[in-house]
Structure formats: C-alpha cells, structure tokens
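Each record in this resource describes a single protein on a pair of labelled lines. An example record follows, reproduced without changes.
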Amino acid sequence: MATDARIERLREYFVDELSWGWGHQARAVFSFLLDAAEDCRGGAVLDAGAGHQRYRPFFDDECLYLTLEHPAGIDHKRMGAIDYDLLGELDGDIPLADGCLHGVVNTSVLEHLRHPERFLAEAHRILRPGGRLYTHVPFTYPEHEEPFDFQRPTSYALRSWLAEAGFVDVEIVPDSSNLTAAVSFVEDALRWDLGDTGHHGEHRRLSELTAPVLAELRRVGADLVGPGTRFPVGWLAVASVPGTLGPAEAGSRSDFLARYGRRAEPVGELCQPSTVDGFDGFTPTASTTSSSMWIRPDASADRTTSTRSRL
C-alpha cells in the first residue's frame, strides 16, 4: 500500500506538473492510477500507448513498468528521444508471451486505434489469470492528434468490446458529470466558431457574457456524477481476466524481457494515413517497414529514469 507521503507527492505531481487540477475528473483518474499500481504491486505492468510516460511515477516504486508505443505515434508527436521497451502496432501482435503481466494500463489510447477490439484481445492474452486491464477513453472530446483519431465509444460499446475479448468483472464509470462536459463544449465551440475564424469581437463579447454562467455550471456540476451521467468527457474501465492472480515474480527488466519477450511475426506494415488517399489509404513510414512489432534493442537494460512531460 502506498504511504500517505508518497500519495501526497504523486498528487502534487499530478496536479501541478501534469496540470490536471483537482476536480472530480482529476480525482477519479488519480484514484484509477493508484488502484492500477496497487493491483500490479510486485508484478509487471504494460503501459500500452505510453506516449510521454507521464504516469510512470505511479508505477516505478510499485512494480516493473514496461512501455509500448507505435513508431508512427513517436514520429507524429516527436518522441524519438524517449526510450520504450516495445515498439509496434497496439492493435497488432504484442511481442510478449501469454499470461505474463499483472496489469495493462491504457490511457487516452483506444480512440487512436482503428481496431480496438484487436488490442483488447491481445491485452487479454498477455495478462495472467486474474490480471486486470485499466483503460481510460474519451467519449465527448474533440478530435485530436489528427489524423490518428478514430473512436468515441459509448459505455455499451466499450463493455461489448471487453466482453468479446474475454474479460469479466467489467466496471465502467464516467470520469466527469454531464455539466462538466457540456461547459467544455460551449467554451470550445465559442473559440473554434468565433475566435479561430476571425470574429474576435463576438468571441470576446460572448465569452464575457457566458463566463459567469459557465463558471457556476462547472462548480455545480463538478461532483454530479452518477447513474444519470450519459455525457461525460470519458469513461474509466477496469476489467479482469478470469482466474486468480498468483504471486508476483516480475524480477528485473532484463530478466523479464529475456524470459517473456518474443519477436512477433509481421502482420502488415506499420503505417500512417496517406495525405493523398485519406483515412482509407495508408502508406508505410520510412522507419517502420521491417516488422510489425519488435523489442527495442536497448530495452533489456534496466532503467530507473522517469519522463514527466505532458502529452
């Protein structure tokens, strides 16, 4: 169990360095990450779609934290200076042995996968019996990281995906109230429809006019999360592989990857959307044509450094 002092250090990092604030959504995500780290204590957890690895501090002292990222995503977000243990398609063949992980963490990633059901099936495969998947996915959130943005599942779609992948004990909760999401939408709409189109006077006037009302709606709606929440910013989901989780035995990074790592058979070239053909046309990137998935050559080296950059 994390100590009170460690939880407070993580809270300060989460609020100040990651700029989450401390409203309902922030508190829900914070607890979600603490629970994931506690469930994986002493075992191995894979951050699938790790990005800038900004949640690494939650796991480093609790378990063996492994990272997976797509080379196209690394190029797109200019993350080439960051080390990852595994590189490849998240909805392809993850190069880890069956049943080797205590947990898989997946935050703000499912929306960027063209085939999320394939990723969930792979997550189920590499988790140990009793292991858990922790996933956070947006629902009412603007398009972002274009053109790699494909999904906004309802809670029913997310539950269906998880059940079809073989997960049980599925728990899905909204990460915010309806009002929180609605306020964000109004603010964004004013900026995009007026401010970004040159109507600066109207944008300023309407922003000033609506600011007190939106602030009050945000305050009132901060904690109004319950059974009637159907329009949240996103969903927090936890799902388990059937069975009982045995004792943790992750060991060192190098030992774990030597024992459980494997080279995947190619299932197709890693790709990025073609600017000529649109979303349905794909062209391979220059750096990602040799294999669909692989263990990075330096991944076996034990590392203790953390990256705390924002996504």
In short: The chain has nine helices and ten strands. The CA atoms of residues 104 and 133 lie 5 Å apart.
